[in-house]
């Protein structure tokens, strides 16, 4: 899905979804998805639905990733669901709505690669939220989510967990649009 040339125009005009994932590393060819979350948001930037799932993986969670995310092998074994089920549920949840991720190339790469590996005929056409922030806040030096949250005075509590990152992104979008239209 390619959005109109002004992706920023979507926000405040129609419902949209935000997606975030956590993984065991940076490569969709070598590493696995450990968590997927999504928010469905209306025109007023209000959350109208959410989903958050831990994923059962084949390998182990590297200690560095556990240190960053708090996601451990124990958590995934106790609460993780099969990836194919989580991918299908997430795809159904966001279907039909413009969907965004911060640094979408990363999330889209993992979601699409693992959908293919699981034999699921779905694609995640995520758009990236970074160009939206570049348009609304052109004076910023950095557009990483932690830097945006700090600059916009948004709590980063729970960062590096998929649902928390979706919520932080939503708050950043609200504030950036408030500044833009004020």
Give a written overview of the molecule.
This protein is an alpha/beta fold. It has one domain (10-181): Nucleotidyltransferase, domain 5. The protein contains 7 helices and 5 strands, in the order E-E-E-H-H-H-E-H-E-H-H-H. A 5-stranded mixed sheet has the order 3-2-1-4-5, sandwiched between helices. Helix 4 (104-117) links the parallel strand 4 (99-101) and strand 5 (127-128). The longest helix has 20 residues, at 162-181. The protein is globular. The protein starts with 15 loop residues before the first strand and ends with a helix.
Low-confidence stretches: 1-5
User: What is the C-level CATH assignment?
Assistant: Alpha Beta
Number of domains: 1
Instruction: Give the strand content.
Output: 15-25%
Main sheet overview: 5 strands, mixed
Our count of helices gives 7
> Main sheet: which strands, in order across?
3-2-1-4-5
Average predicted local confidence, pLDDT: 92
> What is the terminal-to-terminal distance?
30 Å
| Helix share bin | 40-55%
Tell me briefly what this model is.
This protein is of the alpha/beta class and 182 residues long. 41% of the residues lie in helices and 16% in strands.
């Amino acid at each position: 899905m390619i959005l109109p040339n002004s992706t920023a125009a979507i926000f405040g005009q129609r419902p949209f979804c935000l997606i975030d994932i956590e993984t065991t590393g940076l490569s969709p060819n070598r590493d696995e998805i450990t968590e997927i979350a999504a928010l469905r948001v209306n025109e007023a930037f209000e959350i109208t639905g959410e989903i958050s799932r831990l994923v059962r993986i084949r390998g182990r969670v590297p200690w560095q990733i556990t240190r960053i995310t708090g996601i451990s092998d124990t958590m995934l074994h106790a609460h993780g669901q099969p990836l194919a089920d989580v991918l299908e549920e997430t795809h159904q949840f966001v279907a039909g709505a413009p969907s965004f991720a911060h640094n979408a190339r990363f999330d889209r790469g993992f979601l699409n690669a693992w959908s293919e590996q699981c034999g699921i005929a779905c694609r995640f056409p995520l758009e990236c939220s970074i160009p939206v922030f570049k348009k609304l806040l052109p004076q910023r030096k950095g557009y990483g989510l932690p830097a945006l949250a700090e600059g916009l005075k948004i709590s980063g509590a729970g960062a590096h967990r998929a649902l928390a990152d979706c919520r932080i992104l939503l708050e950043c979008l609200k504030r950036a649009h408030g500044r833009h239209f004020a």
